[in-house]
Amino acid sequence: MTGGDAAGLVRPFTLTGGRTRPSRADFTLITTVTAVEPQPTRAARPQPEHLRILRLCAEPVAVAEIAARLDLPVSVVVILLSDLLEAGRITARPPHLVSRATPDLDLLQKVRDGLGRL
């Protein structure tokens, strides 16, 4: 590795200030995150990583997608998202729960028959 390559490498624990656990348990892989507009003026100035997340969250995006786009471990992204949520800079929406109603047996039979014909 050359010196220029090392300059672009930042260890995940550096991004989180050495923290290994989020301060909140609001996030799953499919939690939808959206940046708050306008951003609160009373909050402290965000770090560069926080700003990258805020740009990604201009439109609703899932936690897993944020991690993939930033090429960071989900655990690190969740810690950074917790910071942003506590600062009032993002909103987090849990996934919609699917109703546990009785399945449509007629539909399931048709699907099974269709698959059997393949």
What does this 3D model show about the protein?
With 118 residues, the protein is mainly alpha-helical. It is 44% helix and 8% strand. It has six helices and three strands. Strands 2-1-3 form a three-stranded antiparallel sheet. The longest helix has 13 residues. The chain starts with a helix and ends with a helix. The N terminus is likely disordered.
Helix-strand blueprint:
Elements: H1 3-7, H2 12-15, E1 32-35, H3 48-56, E2 61-62, H4 63-70, H5 74-86, E3 90-93, H6 105-117
Antiparallel strand pairs: 1-2, 1-3
Helix pairs in contact: 4-5
Index terms:
6 helices, disordered N terminus, 3 strands, 118 residues, mainly alpha, three-stranded antiparallel beta sheet
Written as H for each helix and E for each strand, in order along the chain, the element string is: HHEHEHHEH
Q: Give the strand order, joined by hyphens, for the main sheet.
A: 2-1-3
Percent helix, as a range, is: 40-55%
CA-based gyration radius:
20 Å
Mean pLDDT: 82
Distance between the termini: 52 Å
Quickly give the structural class.
Answer: mainly alpha
Strand content: 5-15%
Biggest sheet architecture: 3 strands, antiparallel
Question: Given the C-alpha coordinates, what overall shape results?
Answer: elongated
**Total of DSSP H or I helical runs spanning 4+ residues:** 6
Total strands: the figure is 3
The low-confidence parts are 1-7
